[in-house]
Specification:
By secondary structure, the chain is of the alpha/beta class. About 25% of the residues lie in helices and about 15% in strands. It contains 2 helices and 3 strands; from the N terminus they run βαββα. A 3-stranded parallel β-sheet has the order 1-2-3. Helix 1 links the parallel strand 1 and strand 2. It starts with about 25 loop residues before the first strand and ends with a helix. The site of zinc ion has 8 residues, from helix 1.
Length: about 100
């Protein structure tokens, strides 16, 4: 018997973490900001193989800053994590984006 197909998508409520995982297999996820708890949970449950992110989020980051959800040894899947990639550039992109949002 074939198990029911589960949707493999998630959309974080935080505008800072627009993580969307489509129906196709996602092997790598590259984002500017450290995922929050909700996104980190979606990454684990979606079995993303590798997570790459730029800027750390000291207030809500769940990949090493405030929590470390994706490396919790109690979970049955832990993606490889590459953090701080182009961190300064990612921070600049985020600051520019939100400055534009405030200017509307
Ligand atoms: Zn998030």
């Amino acid at each position: 018997m074939t198990p029911p197909r589960m949707p493999r998508w998630s959309l974080c409520a935080r505008p800072q973490c627009p993580v969307e995982l489509g129906a196709s297999k996602v092997a790598r996820l590259v984002v500017t900001l450290e995922p929050c708890t909700m996104c980190a949970g979606a990454i684990v449950l979606s079995r993303v193989d590798r997570l790459v992110f730029g800027a750390f989020d000291a207030k809500a980051g769940a990949v090493g800053s405030l929590w470390d959800v994706v490396r919790d040894r109690r979970l049955n899947h832990r993606p490889e994590v590459l953090s701080g990639v182009l961190a300064d550039e990612s921070t600049a992109v985020l600051l520019d984006f939100f400055a534009g949002q405030r200017g509307r």
